[in-house]
Amino acid sequence: MRLNERHLMQLAAVIDAGGVSEGAALLGLSQPAVSRSLAMLEARVGEPLFQKGKRPLQPTALGLQLAGQGRIIIAASRQASDAVQGFLRGTKGQVQVGGVPFFMDAMISRMVAEFQNIEPDVAVHQSYGNLPELSQALESEKIDLGIVPMGLLDVAPGFEFTEILPGRNIVACRMAHPLLRKPRLQTSDLTDFPWVAPLPGSPLLSDLHSILLTIGMSDLTIRYSGGSLMSVINYMAETNALAVLPHSVVFATRKEARITVLPLEIPQPNRSLGILRRAGVQRSQAADRFAAFVTKAFVELKHLIKRHENAVVWGR
């Protein structure tokens, strides 16, 4: 036997409100319309839903049981309405974000947590990749946005790029590195120590080659490669190895006091960290809301990073 869900909802409203008129007002319906619905439901099940002659209305055992199902339908309907409204406002749903590993681990993952403290009903799914993989993931709609370092001239047709942080690389080392004690540091001093190689496919690899050209060397001693940000920091904290890292990444780990910046100018990349998205396509409000949150967070972060650079790096 198939019952009309609307009739069950109206039965639940009448019982909960204590009368047909009250239940109709609760649902925004007329009293005659609700009375007809209850009569149709009663005829359908072939049993009375209310005890005859009782005022106020008193439901029968069957009426109570069917009203329970009606409440479930009402609750599900309200949840569906809330989900739609939340999706349209960007306060519910999910965001698929991909990004380069070091930035995601050092900075973006914390921003995800801060964002979800404000928007707890938005789920964020994170993945890793460099520009080629992230561009492909955006094309295939596997991610909503990518956090990547790139030059403005490198933005391919069909994409839009929003800069959130200017590019700035440094040479990183452990806090007690011997080079920090040198009064006059030279780029040639970098050849006296082993290096940590960037992750395969990372733009930091080309930055390392630029340093080699500046020094006038064709090769450096690579002792460690392929590690995550945490493993690179753990390794560097126990050795005299050097690494090319974005200054913002070292800044993000400053409270741990395990690695720092060598006060040495090196060739700088012509690129910025930014949010890469497909242009001219409809995006979820939750993804746009997250992108706006990240962009705003970096506005203040830029000033803090610059202050750190002036005070800690060049103010030694």
UniProtKB/TrEMBL annotation:
**A GO molecular-function term, please?**
DNA-binding transcription factor activity
- What is the top-level taxon of the source organism? Bacteria
Residue ranges spanning the membrane: these are none
Similarity field: Belongs to the LysR transcriptional regulatory family.
Give the originating organism.
Fertoeibacter niger
Q: Which PANTHER family match?
A: HTH-TYPE TRANSCRIPTIONAL REGULATOR YBHD, NITROGEN ASSIMILATION TRANSCRIPTIONAL ACTIVATOR-RELATED
Q: What is the lineage of its organism?
A: Bacteria, Pseudomonadati, Pseudomonadota, Alphaproteobacteria, Rhodobacterales
Q: Which GO terms describe its cellular component?
A: cytosol
The record's keywords, sorted A to Z, are: DNA-binding, Transcription, Transcription regulation
Residue intervals of the HTH lysR-type domain: 3-60
What is the official name of this protein in its record?
LysR family transcriptional regulator
Question: Mind telling me which Pfam families this protein's record contains?
Answer: HTH_1, LysR_substrate
